[in-house]
Amino acid sequence: MVEPVVRLFVMRLLAGFMVGLVTATLLVALMMRQGIEPFEMQPLPQAQRSCDDFPPLKNDNLLRAARGEPVDRVPVWVMRQAGRYLPEFQEVRAKHDFFTVCRTPELACEVTMQPLRRFDLDASIIFSDILVIPQALGITVEMKPGVGPVLPEPLVGPADLARLNQTGTIERLKYVGEAITMMRHMLEGKVPLFGFTGAPWTLMGYMIEGGGSKTMSKAKAWLTDYPEASQQLLDILTDQVVDYLVMQVKAGAQMLQVFESSADHLTKEQFLAVSLPCLKRIRVDLLRKLADEGVPAVPMVLFAKGGMHSLTEQAQTGYEVLGIDYSIDPEEARKRAGPNVTLQGNLDPQDMYKPPEELRELVLTMVRKFGKHRYIANLGHGITPQTPIESMNVLVQAVHDAL
């Protein structure tokens, strides 16, 4: 009687094992079909998710430049430095859609780290997107290949402001904070980490236009047709930006950049009336909220692409650093901004396609015009997808060799 019982027990045990094996196999297959690598999704140990005990910073040239202090070398980083020009980034994107990468801290950190493995950069910037704020407010944002961001249900009139869900937005953006904290540990103090946001006018444009626009005609029409609703929307976005940046600093961001990428669609008068008040309030309210919570402030960069006409006014907003686009000569930019603010920029991204020797001379000339004091080298806009990788090496080395 014992042998049949043992045989039955063994058969049931094997059957249970086979069921579990098949289930696990199906689960892994399902994850792979959805572009999720099981090993990539393993969370870091809790110690590496904590905002306590970050590794000490080894290269603080970026922060010193922002504060107007002496630097060992001119610091350099590049907007969109974690991007499509890198084959390893393309490999990640082949498996995961854009916003999955943004919302998965492990993937966001991997992409953030990629350019640092290749180039001797002086800063990292967390991989994310400015349109996560509209998403958190309840606006659908899709990233379509060859098109870019698309918002299929844009704001058409003032009544649409009621669609914006302003409750719990920062909680819905907590994945950005988690990625920042994780990244601070992964960096091991190698370089400082940027957080960032889109500015209210730029976000407003996307939300009304339904995507990128060469004219911003619908958003500009709101300013004249719906002035009260426009101000209400700008106020909503300013409040959200402030809270979003507070969260990023508390998570470990060591520097912040505010991207006013659509300043070029405003005249100087419009910029001063529409954009600049929001930009000022972001800084004032951010500093106040951080102080109320006993959190140290971090340096801030204001980059208003196409807003070089207002550098004098921007220099009075209190931002430690002003981003300079490629439309203005470095010496003229310094003249307009004055001596008490750090400048960041401003190589034309198209220059990155020039032969290495020519590119090197352009970079050397740029850096020497800006000088070593209160300067951070960068492009005058984001790096473009087909940029040769060798051009990044030339850029970084030339910046570090210039002075």
UniProtKB/TrEMBL annotation:
It comes from Anopheles farauti. The chain crosses the membrane at residues 12-32. Coiled coil: none annotated. It is an enzyme of class 4 (lyase). Pathway: Porphyrin-containing compound metabolism; protoporphyrin-IX biosynthesis; coproporphyrinogen-III from 5-aminolevulinate: step 4/4. Homodimer. Keywords: Cytoplasm, Decarboxylase, Heme biosynthesis, Lyase, Membrane, Porphyrin biosynthesis, Transmembrane, Transmembrane helix. It is found in: Cytoplasm, Cytosol. It comes from the Eukaryota. Pfam families: URO-D. One of its GO terms (biological process) is protoporphyrinogen IX biosynthetic process. Catalyzes the decarboxylation of four acetate groups of uroporphyrinogen-III to yield coproporphyrinogen-III. The keyword DNA damage does not apply. CDD domains: URO-D. This is Uroporphyrinogen decarboxylase. Its main location: cytoplasm. It catalyses: uroporphyrinogen III + 4 H(+) = coproporphyrinogen III + 4 CO2. InterPro entries: UROD/MetE-like_sf (IPR038071), Uroporphyrinogen_deCO2ase_HemE (IPR006361), Uroporphyrinogen_deCOase (IPR000257). GO terms for molecular function: uroporphyrinogen decarboxylase activity. The keyword Ribonucleoprotein does not apply. GO terms for cellular component: cytosol. Residues 75-84, 194-210 form the Uroporphyrinogen decarboxylase (URO-D) domain.
